[in-house]
Amino acid sequence: MNFNTRLIHGNHKVDSAGATNTPIYLSNAFAHDSAEKLEGIMSGTSMGFAYTRISNPTVNSFERRMASIEGGQVATSAASGMSAIYLAVMNILETGDEIIASSGLYGGTYTLLTNLKSFGINVKFLGTIDEASLKANITDKTKIVFGETIGNPKLDVLDIDLVAKVCTDNNVIFIVDSTITTPYLINPLKHGVDLVIHSTSKYINGTSNSIGGIIVDGGSSKYKSDKFKNFKDYTKKFGKLAFTAKLKATIGKDLGAALSPLSAFLNLTGVETLGLRMCQHCKNAKAVAEFLESNEKIVSVNYPGLKSSKYYGIAQKYYKDGASGILTFRLGSKENAFKFVNELKLVKNLTNIGDTKTIIIHPSSTICVTNTEEEKENMGVYDDLLRLSVGIEDVEDIINDIKGAIKVI
Ligand SMILES: *Cc1c(COP(=O)(O)O)cnc(C)c1O
């Protein structure tokens, strides 16, 4: 099956009543006609459903769809993108371990990783993740390299093939957050990534009607090494799928950050149109970026799909179908940025990305308000900078709204 077909039919199980949409199983628990059956399900020796915190038919259907779309072995959903990230890293790390991450990460992830210090886990944030910086920082204690395909809001582009090679050479798990790029633009597992994460709240759901996250497991033999002693029991029994087996048996159950069946249904509906939406997001964002760049009142525009971007070359290598829908631009002062936002009529001022609607935010005073000046600079966030998540409206209407707002600065 090709991409758009998989969005709709990938790993679909035919419903016994003939429903074409996956039914919503709003049931916390599932009854079985024998004690032996429930024993089998709960001890993991037979398939089936017992309790929705562990698994649920609607949630499972969404997980199977995501695994198909990403080209992964299995997928595990979570209540939010943040809980998916937390589950993924804490399923691997132990006290004394190290993680290497980009300093341009999504603010929530940056804080999450920083907070791991209280568990005795050390995080090294690097301004640029490349061969030289990785080689200089990877030690025997390094278990994970964590990056974003395209950083939010820095919009730096990760050279995935290169990082994957260094991770393989050093037996380090490579986790990538592909929320901004989505499987429409890239399947990171095909580039040697071990685990792909999405905040499904964004482009996967598409219309911002539910919060969720997913971890897609590509399978890896890295866990077999002595470095990952905590995986020993799982690699013996589950081989390359040790990560997901351990996740389900330990922290997944412990944390209980399960995706709601209703949210899984909404995500299943939303993801069917991912290809159509992403095509339009990319086209609109490029047009808006080019318009902004041509206007003399705009100090600078950051969009990896622009020739002027320092990431243009690498974006061309991985993202031939477009550079997604997020861009940032600078207006010279915070005052100008606020005036601009206040003048917009169609474009909404709120903290979100990846919606069908065009969205703007002043990151420095909102999502990054608790970060230090130095951290903000590392994240590519300045006092005069706005982040735009370009929607799928008619681009003329988006540009007209922006034109109106530029007049007041
Ligand atoms: C929004 C976002 C997250 C967090 O996801 P939630 O669903 O809001 O918890 C993680 N990473 C990136 C890149 C995001 O944009």
Which hetero compounds are present in the coordinates? pyridoxal-5'-phosphate
Radius of gyration: 22 Å
CATH architecture descriptor name of the largest domain:
3-Layer(aba) Sandwich
In the CATH hierarchy, what is the class of the largest domain? Answer: Alpha Beta
Q: Characterize the quaternary organization of these chains.
A: single chain
- Helix tally? 17
Q: Structural class, please? A: alpha/beta
The CATH superfamily of the largest domain is known as Type I PLP-dependent aspartate aminotransferase-like (Major domain)
Overall tally of domains: 2
**Residue-averaged pLDDT:** 97
Largest sheet: 7 strands, mixed
Mass-distribution shape: globular
List strands and helices in order, with pairings:
Blueprint: H1 3-9, H2 35-42, H3 57-70, E1 74-78, H4 81-90, E2 98-102, H5 107-114, E3 122-126, H6 131-137, E4 142-148, H7 160-169, E5 173-177, H8 182-185, E6 195-199, E7 213-217, H9 232-238, H10 242-249, H11 251-255, H12 261-271, H13 274-293, E8 300-302, H14 312-318, E9 326-330, H15 334-343, E10 348-349, E11 359-361, H16 373-378, E12 385-389, H17 395-406
Parallel strand pairs: 2-3, 2-4, 4-5, 5-6, 10-11
Antiparallel strand pairs: 1-7, 6-7, 8-9, 9-12, 11-12
The structure holds pyridoxal-5'-phosphate (PLP).
